[in-house]
Write a structure and sequence with these properties.
With 211 residues, the protein is mainly alpha-helical. It has two domains: 89 residues, Helix-hairpin-Helix base-excision DNA repair enzymes (C-terminal) (Endonuclease Iii, domain 2, Orthogonal Bundle), CATH 1.10.1670; 102 residues, Hypothetical protein, domain 2 (Endonuclease III, domain 1), CATH 1.10.340. It is 58% helix and 0% strand. Helix 2 runs antiparallel to helix 8, helix 4 packs across helix 6 and helix 5 crosses helix 6. It is elongated, with a radius of gyration of 18 Å.
Length: 211
């Protein structure tokens, strides 16, 4: 695995080049962000933002979503993959927020995971983005890059194991940012296909680098 010295240098380079950027999902309040996160599963932030641009002009709380109705929601999000099941989950989440949390998005992982369509990864993303909690969301970009950069053992193949090992080695200062560092770098630079190896500023740490 990566040495402490190299880890510090890697994180410093991420901080210099990416900074404190957060989620690329557009939203105006916590409820909208939770909806956007739910919709983003197996989709891209760009597509989700396109779908929610008009939606979020009229929907900003659970009750307004329920008033719109599942069919009405589908008309806005039909460009998103799996939109039928996602619309159902959004409605179930909105009802649970009203019934159990007085319409307010909760601030703990256990409570967030009581919401339909919100698993551990999504809960971590919400806590990190909205409340500054040093939780680590592990998506496909993170799963891929942690092995390329030797951040976790080879047998850490699940999001849970990757989260566990990252939580152990990442200094507290960087925990609020490490997920987005890896997501953004994986999304735009170190792509699964045709990675930009020639311009990679962290090439020295990569196990599969191309000269």
């Amino acid at each position: 695995m990566i040495t402490n010295k190299n880890l510090k240098e890697l994180l410093s380079l991420f901080e210099k080049n990416i900074g404190a950027k957060k989620s690329e999902l557009n939203y105006k309040n916590p409820y909208q962000f939770a909806v956007a996160v739910l919709l983003s599963a197996q989709s891209t932030d760009k597509i989700v933002n396109k779908a929610t641009k008009d939606l979020f002009e009229i929907i900003d709380n659970p009750q307004s979503m329920l008033d719109l109705g599942e069919k009405g929601l589908k008309d806005y999000i039909k460009i998103i993959g799996l939109y039928n099941s996602k619309a159902k989950h959004v409605m179930e989440m909105s009802q649970t927020l009203i019934d159990k949390f007085d319409g307010i998005l909760p601030k703990t992982r256990d409570e967030l995971q009581q919401l339909a369509g919100i698993g551990r990864k999504s809960a971590n993303v919400i806590l990190n983005e909205l409340y500054g909690t040093p939780t680590i969301g592990v998506d496909t970009h993170v799963l891929r890059l942690v092995h390329r950069l030797d951040l976790v053992p080879n047998d850490a193949k699940t999001p849970e194991k990757v989260e566990y090992y990252l939580d152990k080695i990442i200094p507290d200062y960087y925990k609020p940012y490490i997920s987005n560092y890896l997501v953004l770098y994986g999304r735009y630079e170190c792509k699964a296909q045709n990675p930009h190896c020639e311009n990679c500023y962290i090439k020295k740490f990569c196990k599969v680098k191309k000269d």
